[in-house]
Write the structure tokens for this entry.
Amino acid sequence: MTAEQHRTLKALLTGKFCYADCICACRLLADAFDFLDFNYLGNSIMGHSIPLFTVGRGEKEIVYVGTHHGAERITGGLLLYFLAEFCSAAKGRRGICGVSPEYILHTRKLHVLPMLNVDGADIAACGAPKDHLLTPRLLAMCKDGDFSHWQANARGVDLNHNYNAGFDAYRAAFPNYDETGGAPSRYAGLSPESEPETAAMAGFLRYRTPCALLTLHTQGREIYSTSGGKCPRQSPAAAKKLADLTGYALKTPVGAAAYGGLTDYCITALNLPAFTVECGKGQNPLPHTDLLSIYAEIRTALFVFPTLF
Ligand SMILES: [Zn+2]
């Protein structure tokens, strides 16, 4: 990656980081590293393509997912910055954070999804689209007209409550979220995987059968690795390592956070070691200008993660 490309990447990731910025950053990475496979997972409810990178030729597959929540799209910036560093080190045959990216590429296959909720990210960055079928519904769901805290997708479904893991229990336990029929956050939808984004994500995992998944959110400096007290055999040791490397606290999900998330689905339905990392500390949305300081907290953990499985 040239110095100019790196400057452009940093400006995109630390700026507004709307959907168009994310795709610009993805194209930049794809241009800079020819061994990086840039593709799409599928389409959002508004028809936007969900970017997906795959790199490596090993059998063990590892998945990184960012931006389930629109106002947390800095997590996409964190993953793209990681991917750029990973690919630069692999290209230069350099070790980094105690691991060899070259070795990882030989023995693992990494899938990186920086922005699953592409519509929600764009709505949080730019407000409701000007002229779309969903615009009146979006405006009705956001009473004060301030979309900067928007977390759901463009239909008002919180994607991280839309997976098939404790779905009915969540709707019964939190009827006030259910009654909204669509909201800036926490509305689970009518059925699991009702949204194209979650259906594509869950379908991808069932098809690829990876051996571990890491999903980034903000904020709290916390790590979750269990669901309903359960976790796969390999999870406790890996969670402890991630906690040691980040200095983040290992926590047990409680309340609304304990149902319907991707980590819950991976653990309970797929027996797949999965980890939610709540990056940084502050109020969402965390300022994008803090990207590099938050990245410094999780950097080593991102590099070491594939070697734990
Ligand atoms: Zn989140």
The longest strand covers residues 37-43. Residues 243 and 249 are 6 Å apart (CA to CA). The chain has a mean pLDDT of 96. Residues 68-69, 72, 160, 217 surround zinc ion (CB under 6 Å).
